[in-house]
């Protein structure tokens, strides 16, 4: 009888919930404006990487996070190739406070998406007949902390004026 009473008792609220619903490429672009001449030069690439994230709420407790990577590779001051990729994911997230949610969407989710983006970019580069380009891992927690510190500094400076 005690077992039955436990089953009918109201359930406590569940703690934080997180699940990856889907990971997908939203947009991809590859340009090699100086080919085939670029293949004739000794290969000493200079790699530039720009990153950006965007978040959209797409349903109750459902968020799309888009990680945009733009990779520009130059060789002898000429652009060898330019890759832009929007790696996206849909994440089910609930039970987090505002600050935890902001951190999850701004650092944790992009960290999940980055390996997928890195692999997609590498595949495009190889298919274009360039040497493999494995981007170094990115510490999204450190970038997030840096952005928050910068935003706080801007608020402080505005308050002083």
UniProtKB/TrEMBL annotation:
Pfam families: SecB
Keyword Transport attributed: yes
Domain of life: Bacteria
Signal peptide: none
Sorted UniProt keywords: Chaperone, Cytoplasm, Protein transport, Translocation, Transport
Compartment list: Cytoplasm
SUPFAM superfamilies: SecB-like
Function: One of the proteins required for the normal export of preproteins out of the cell cytoplasm. It is a molecular chaperone that binds to a subset of precursor proteins, maintaining them in a translocation-competent state. It also specifically binds to its receptor SecA.
Family: Belongs to the SecB family.
PANTHER family: PROTEIN-EXPORT PROTEIN SECB, PTHR36918
Classification via HAMAP family: SecB
Subunit and interaction comment: Homotetramer, a dimer of dimers. One homotetramer interacts with 1 SecA dimer.
Protein name: Protein-export protein SecB
Species assigned in the record: Neptuniibacter pectenicola
Name of the gene encoding the protein in the UniProt record: secB
């Amino acid at each position: 009888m005690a077992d039955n009473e436990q089953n009918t008792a109201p359930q406590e609220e569940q703690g934080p919930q997180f699940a990856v619903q889907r990971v997908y490429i939203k947009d991809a672009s590859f340009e090699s404006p100086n080919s085939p001449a670029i293949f004739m030069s000794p290969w000493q690439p200079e790699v530039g990487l720009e990153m950006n994230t965007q978040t959209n709420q797409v349903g109750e407790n459902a968020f799309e996070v888009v990680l945009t990577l733009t990779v520009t590779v130059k060789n002898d001051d000429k652009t060898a190739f330019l890759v832009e990729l929007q790696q996206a994911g849909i994440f089910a997230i609930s039970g987090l406070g505002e600050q935890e949610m902001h951190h999850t969407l701004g650092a944790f989710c992009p960290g999940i998406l980055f390996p997928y983006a890195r692999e997609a970019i590498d595949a495009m580069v190889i298919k274009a007949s360039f040497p493999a380009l494995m981007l170094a891992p990115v510490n999204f927690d450190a970038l997030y902390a840096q952005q928050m510190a910068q935003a706080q500094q801007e608020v402080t400076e505005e308050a002083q004026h």
